[in-house]
Amino acid sequence: MSSPHLDPEEARRHDLLRFDYSRRPLAGRVILLAGGTGGLGAATAALLITEGAYPILGYHSNRGRAELVQQRLQDGYSGPVGLLQADIREAAGRKRFVEEALRVRDRIDGLVVFTGDPARTKTPDLESPAFLEALDQNAAAPLLLARDVAAAMRERSARGAIVLLSSMQGAYPFEGSLAYGTAKAALIHGAKVLAKDFGGRGGINVNVVAPGVTTVGMARASVDTGKYDAMVDRGVISRFGRPEDVARVVRLLIDPDSYITGQVIVVDGGLTLRRDC
User: Is residue 17 part of a domain?
Assistant: First the structure.
């Protein structure tokens, strides 16, 4: 007797080796991008617009810059882009983030969290306040926002997807990154917990993308100083990462029909495999 969870039409198609590789566009889907006015966020928003999604870019304080990013995306990709100001480190800010998004379109289909900040204090000088601040910005705030958005989607019985941005420093140990690396590692573990909490019948996927050295965002300052030039010169990586590299992986994971959850994809060109070569 066939399983009641098996689609007979789909099974027959597979028996005939007729596989469905048609791209399912994100038309009409509302995707929240916390920290979406940065380089990686803007690149992801651009890709989502081309597929008919409605990205809402969350920003913390610089409204002028946020509006400039919004206008350039709308002009360049001919699609609407929303803006939403909120401080997701605070409970009130997270609540506003969710409620405003629902007010605008009455639905949320996905969330991508780009927020975070590298700890400036080196390991020998690190004390509790700086450590706790790194944990708050890079782990606690994104995870609590992800929880709140997942809960909102579950209340509406909507399938959805959440993608959190960690770092190669959260996936592998890097010297000097005790606060930042530990916080980004905590983010990865927390995402897996949320994947268990909201997955299964809940139908909400939670995954993590861990970028390496990219030419936008927080890594750009290090690239500009030449810090990572030796990695390319020695062949550790073939080039620096592009924002499009990260955006394509986010696109894969933000699709509610994706069969991936609780996973981490490191987008670093192999740097963490060969950095000691």
Answer: no
